[in-house]
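Trying the structure run again after the queue cleared.
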Amino acid sequence: MDPIRNPYAPGAGQRPPELAGRDEQLRAFDVVLERIAAGRPERSLVLTGLRGVGKTVLLNALRSAAVRKRWGSGKLEARPDQGLRRPLSSALHQAVRELGHPQADEADHVLGVIRAFAQRDAGAGAKLKDQWNPGIDAPAVRGRADSGDIEIDLVELFTDVGGLAADVGKGVAVFIDEMQDLGPDDVSALCAACHEMSQSGLPMIVVGAGLPHLPAVLSASKSYSERLFRYQRIDRLSREAADRALAAPADDEGACFTEDALTAMYAATGGYPYFIQAYGKAVWDLAPRSPITGDDVAVAAPEAEAELAVGFFGSRYERATPGEREYLRAMADAALAIAESEDEELDDIESVPTADVAAILGKKPQSLSPARDALLKKGLIYSGERGRIAFTVPHFGRYLRERG
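Done. Tokens:
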């Protein structure tokens, strides 16, 4: 098979040639955009799921839908070591520019509010050289969104940006990736601002994406967050959607898969979109001709697994300290023990009790809290319920057991 014509694209956030299995989410978001444009109430949206299920890809697709409706849009990626003010200011700066408000004075006023919101990050009385410049030409508007209280400031900022959008009969959508990495104060402020937007009816929403425990992060901040957002869990693809993700790009290049090849691909990938792209690329490059067969999948599997071991699993494993790696391996062993047990079944997310991990390591659960907390902060594991933990990366346990 010609590697130059290989249609598969395993990459972080890179859109696959066929965005299969996400039609429901795309249709639902189109309804949200239309309802908000018509002045009807709608909730902001939160996408949750494991690594590799395509949350970022879907987030980008939803943003494209907003752009097609001529909405103002901006995107940011939350980071544990960064506050919300600067990245959000850049995102809203772009959104306001996209709105194209006909009254320059009105637009400049809101841009000035954004600038004041961003520069408050430096603290009151900071020297000019210490003030971050968000690239906005308009002067900062003093006394608006610059109190230093992030909750007050964000409500005022969203109110002004939402009002600008309402003036031109459009909306503004802010897209936040890795939303679980926002700090507690920023999460609380974001919830309060979204609540204000829903109460005031202004055409502005937040679309967030994050790991499965993101709803718990939001709920811990504001109890009403359960009603504030529409939650959608993004999971692995069904067999039908996975087959389409492989077959449609191949068909565009005049190639195809046999039925046994598609069966083998689904068994190997588990339906996870990133794995589908990685396997698809490896199988295409090594298959001698079309149709691609089950034997071709078997031949290419070691190369696909080697690529995943380095680029998907290994990069995350290397972030852990030796002590944390011991904890991760114990989690993998605990999951295997449950899977082989006749008394207990492994759940869908392959979560394990923290007590089981401690027993495998021969230590008290309390002594392992630092390693567990560090892995939680690094985004390698998460806690779906009290006393249980799971990997944020699918098939990570298998990778660790095979690593030895």
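The chain has a mean pLDDT of 92. Worth checking whether this holds up in the mutant runs.
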